[in-house]
Amino acid sequence: MTEDFDVRLVEDVKSYTPDPAYRKNAWMPDYQKAYAEFMKNPEKFWEAQAKELDWIRPWDKVLEWNYPYAKWFTGAQLNITLNCLDRHANNSRRNKVALIWRGEEGRERIFTYQKLLSQVCRFANALKKIGVKKGDCVCIYMPLVPEQLIAMLACARIGAVHSVVFGGFGSAALNMRINDAGAKVIITADISIRRGKAIQLKAIVDEATVDAPTVEHVIVLRRREPLVDLQEIELDFHEMMAGMPDTCEPEVMDAEDPFFILYTSGSTGKPKGIVHTCAGYMVGTHYTSKNVFDIKENDTYWCTADPGWITGHSYIVYGPLAVGATVFISELTPDYPDAGSYWSLIEEQKITIFYTAPTAIRMFMKMGEEWPDKYNLSSLRIIGSVGEPLNPEAFEWYYRVIGKKRCPIVDTWWQTETGMIMITTVIGEPMHPGFAGKPLPGVIADVVDKEGKPVKPGTGGLLVVKSPWPSMLRTVYKDDERYRKYWYTIDGVYTVGDLAVKSRDGYIMILGRSDDIIIVAGHNIGTAEVESALVSHHAVAEAAVIGKPDEVKGNSIKAFVILRVGNKPGDRLRQDLLHHVRSTLGPIAMPHEIDFVDKLPKTRSGKIMRRVLKAKEMGMDPGDVSTLEE
Ligand code: PRX
Q1: Which residues make beta-bridge pairs with 141?
Q2: Three-state DSSP class for 180?
Q3: Which atom of ligand 1 approaches the CA of 496 most closely?
Q4: 519 Cβ partners below 8 Å, 6+ apart?
Q5: pLDDT tens per residue, range 504-542
Q6: Beta strand residue intervals within 425-550, DSSP E
Q7: What residues line ligand 1, using a CB cutoff of 6 Å?
Q8: Measured between alpha carbons, how far is residue 531 from residues 90, 207, 539, 550 in Å?
Q9: 120, 349, 517, 554: which sits with the fewest CB atoms below 10 Å from its CB?
C-alpha cells in the first residue's frame, strides 16, 4: 500500500484542456469556485442543489449526522417521479422526447415525457391492483427495454422498493436476491435478445422461484409470438396495464424512506443489499447528471450501461430524467450486428453525450479504428467512462478516435454505495489521462494510509470519503454490521475499498480494488461468490479464485480447484464446472481458466492466501508469507 509511485510520472502526465467555450457554457463553469463555496458551508451547498427540485414538503434540516448514520433533508416529503416525469410532462417539456429505445433490426420506440408519465401511471395502478403497497419489495429482472424503466418508475410512483437484478445473472444469484429482499412480486420478460439470439429469461425466473416463498406474483412482458403460457401466479405486463387510468397520485415519501435496494458483491459469498433512500439519492443524482454531463435542453444522452447496475439507476433513469434529458437506450451489444453498432447508433441518433465503460473502449481499440471512422460522430459533445480505471492508452484512443480531440472525457469514479459520481474532471478543467480527477464539489475525498493519515503525493494508499454526502448508502439490507464496516475500517471516514494515488495538484488516479473483489469487464465479482458456486458442484472439495490482468476486460477470473476423491480432472469436468458457474451466477462470473490442484496456500488458521496464488501466477514476489501454513 505504501509502494512509491514515480511522482514524475504522476506530475508530468499529459494534459488536455478542452476548448474554453465548454467551460464558459457549462452548468459548472468554475470548479475551484464551486468547491470553495461547498467547503465554506457544505449544508448550504447541498440545500441549494435541493432547491432546484420540486418537493411536496420542504425539509426542516439539511443533514443530521450521527456517525456513521446520516439523514438528509429530514422532514421533507417528495416523490422522485414528480421530478423525473410530472415536472416536465406538465410544463414546456410535455412533448419533449424522454426516451428513445433501439432494438435489433432497426426497431425503435419513442416516448415523450407525457407518454412516459401515462405509461408509468398505468403500470403503477396495475401494481396497486395486485396489492403492491408502499414499502413492498419488487424484484425487476428484465432486458433493456422501455418496460424495464417503466417498471422501476412505477415502483417509485407507489413507494414500492425495487430491487433490480441485472438480466445476465443466473438462477441461484437471482434466487438469493429475491429471498434476501423478500420480494413480493417479480417483473420479468419471456426473453432478452443478445446478438440476435433469444435468451430465455423466464426459464431462469422459473428456476429461481422454486424456493421463493415471499413471491406472490410474477409479471411477464411477453415479447415473442406465440405467447408463452402463463402459470397461475403469472400475469401479462401489458394486459395488466390495459384499461388502467393513466394518472396515479404519487405516494408521499418521507426523505429517508427506503427507495431501492441494489445488490453488489462483497468480500463474503453473499452479496450486499445496498439501501438507498428517497431525498438524498434524488438530489445527488440530479446534481451530478446536470453538472458532470452538463446536460442541456437539446442533448441526446446515451449511457450504455444496463439499468440493472447502479450506473443505469443513477445515469439512465433517475438523474437524466430529473434533469429533463432525452435519454437513448439500446438493447444492441457493441459488437453486434458488427463492430460498428455503437458508432452507427451515435450517427443515427445524433448522440451528443456518450457514457460507456473502459472494457468497451478497450474492445473497440482492438477491433480497429476503421469501424468508428466509417461513421459521422460529429454530434458528440462530451464522452464519459465508468466502472474501472480508464488506463492512459484507452484514454488517448477514446479522446482521439471517438472524441476527435474535441470532446472532453469525464472519467467518473463512484460506486453502488455512493449512488452518485464522486470524483471526476469537471467539463472545462484540464484532463490528465489515467487520473479520474478531483472530488466533485459536495465531496471530500482523500488518499490515506491504514491509520487514516493522508499519504504523500505519488504514494499509493486507500481512497476514503471524509464526510457524508446525500446519496450515500444508508445501510446494507438486514446486515447493518456490514454497513458499519465501511465507516469503522478507518475511524471517522468512509473506506471505499479502492487503492489510489494522488498527484501534487490533487488529481486522483484509481489503481484498483484493495479487497477480494475482482472487476471483470466493469462488473464487480466477489472471489467468494465464485468459490462458493464452484464448491456447490458435487465434484469440488475446495476452490480459490483470483483476478488476472486482461487486456480488454481489465481482469479475468482464474480458479484453482481441489476435487473430491473419486473425481478425475480433465476437460469434461472443466466444461461442467464452467457450465455450473454460468447457470448459478451467470455468464459474467465465469472463470476464464480453471486449474486442478492438490493443495491451496493457506494461513495456519486455514484462510486461503489468494495473494500467494496470484503472485505465483504472475511470476511475482508473494511478499510476506510468514503466516503461510508450510
Ligand atoms: O473499484 C472501483 C470501480 O468500480 C467499483 C464500484 O463498482 P460498482 O459498485 O459496481 O459501481 C460501478 C459503477 C459506478 C469502485 O470501487 N470504479 C468505478 N468507476 C471507476 C472505478 N475505478 C476506476 N475509475 C473509475 N472511473
Answers
A1: 188
A2: helix
A3: 16
A4: 387, 388, 512, 513, 525, 547, 554, 555
A5: 999 999 999 988 899 999 899 999 899 989 999 999 999
A6: 438-439, 445-448, 461-465, 475-476, 494-502, 508-513, 517-520, 523-526, 540-550
A7: 264, 310-311, 386-389, 411-416, 436, 496-498, 510, 513, 519, 524
A8: 52, 21, 13, 20
A9: 349
**Domains located in the chain, CATH noted:** 7-79+258-513 (3.40.50.12780), 81-251 (3.40.50.980), 519-618 (3.30.300.30)
Q: How many whole angstroms from 371 Cα to the centroid of ligand 1?
A: 28
Q: Please name which of 526, 76, 33, 541 lies closest in space to residue 283, comparing C-alpha atoms.
A: 76
Residue 416 Cα to ligand 1 midpoint, Å, equals 8
303/99 Cα distance (integer angstroms): 12
Ligand 1 pocket, mutate which of 165, 262, 524 (most atoms under 8 A from CB): 524
C-alpha cell at position 601? 496456500
Cell 467512462 sits on residue: 385
Q: List alpha helices for 28-112, DSSP H.
A: 31-40, 42-50, 80-81, 87-89
**Measured distance CA(76)–CA(62) in Å, rounded:** 9
Element containing residue 84 per DSSP (H, E): none
- The span from the CA of 419 to the CA of 301, in Å, is 19
Q: How far is CA 251 from CA 79, 336, 591, in A?
A: 7, 41, 44
Buried b (16+ CB within 10 A) or exposed e, 313-330: bbbbbbbbbbbbbbbbbb
Comparing CA positions, the residue from 530, 573, 577 lying closest to residue 555 is 530
Which three cell numbers mark 143? 432486458
Helix (H) or strand (E) holding 92: none
- CA 472 to centroid of ligand 1, rounded, Å: 15
C-alpha triplet 482, 487, 488: angle, nearest 5° = 85
Q: Can you tell me the distance from the alpha carbon of 131 to that of 583, in angstroms, rounded to the nearest whole number?
A: 32
**235-290 pLDDT tens trace:** 999 999 999 999 999 999 999 999 999 999 887 888 999 999 999 999 999 999 99
Residue with cell 487514516: 452
Taking the C-alpha atoms of residue 395 and residue 367, their distance in angstroms, rounded to an integer, is: 16
Q: How far apart are CA 102 and CA 481, in angstroms?
A: 43
Contacts of the segment 213-217: beta carbons below 8 A, 24+ positions apart: 213/179, 214/178, 214/179, 214/182, 214/183, 214/184, 215/178, 215/183, 215/184, 215/185, 215/186, 216/130, 216/131, 216/184, 216/185, 217/130, 217/184, 217/185, 217/186
Cα pseudo-dihedral 527, 532, 533, 535, rounded to 10: 120
Residue-wise DSSP of 573-590: HHHHHHHHHHHHT-GGG-
74, 61 contact by CB (below 8 A)? yes
List, in order, residues 6 or more apart from 604 with CB less than 8 Å away.
627, 629
- Yes or no: say if 272 and 534 are a contact pair by the CB < 8 Å rule: no
Query: What are the pLDDT digits (tens) for 540-583?
Result: 999 999 999 999 999 999 999 999 999 999 999 999 999 999 99
The candidate with the shortest Cα–Cα distance to 521, out of 408, 380, 361, is 361
Nearest CA among 235, 231, 228 for reference residue 185: 235
Task: Please give the model's pTM, rounded to 2 decimal places.
Answer: 0.95
